[in-house]
Design goal:
Blueprint: E1 2-7, E2 10-13, E3 18-26, E4 33-39, E5 45-51, E6 57-59, E7 67-72, E8 77-82, E9 91-98, E10 109-110, E11 114-119
Parallel strand pairs: 2-11
Antiparallel strand pairs: 1-3, 3-8, 4-5, 4-9, 5-6, 7-8, 9-10, 9-11
Length: 120
């Protein structure tokens, strides 16, 4: 089992920045690719970004150039730096872990989510 706990969500104005964190425990963090997903109000959950065990990254087109996923294997933590935020980025953001990369769905482990609200 891998336990994932997200933090860092909140309310921010359009154009602002937030950094989300996801702390992992349980199985060896280094064995897993990590990802961020989001679910906007009234919409299905969508893939946002993923990072491999070795640091390769993959993004959905709508966040390229604005969001950066990174990981610190020594801290068992993955981050999502979000810049130039838009109201359409408002969502619950979820951290996920899986051994496949790049995978955009069906991850093995999920966190509980953290809320991000971007005001216009």
């Amino acid at each position: 089992q891998v336990q994932l706990v997200e933090s860092g969500g909140g309310l921010v104005q359009a154009g602002g920045s937030l950094r989300l964190s996801c702390a992992a425990s349980g199985r060896t963090f280094n064995d897993y690719a990590m990802a961020w997903f989001r679910r906007a109000p009234g919409k299905e959950r969508e893939f946002v970004a993923a990072i491999s065990r070795y640091g390769s990254t993959y993004y959905v087109n709508s966040v390229k150039g604005r969001f950066t996923i990174s990981r610190d294997n020594a801290k068992n933590t993955v981050y999502l730096q979000m810049n130039s935020l838009k109201p359409e980025d408002t969502a619950v953001y979820y951290c996920a872990a899986d051994k496949r990369f790049p995978a955009t769905r069906a991850y093995d482990y999920w966190g509980q989510g953290t809320h991000v609200t971007v005001s216009s």
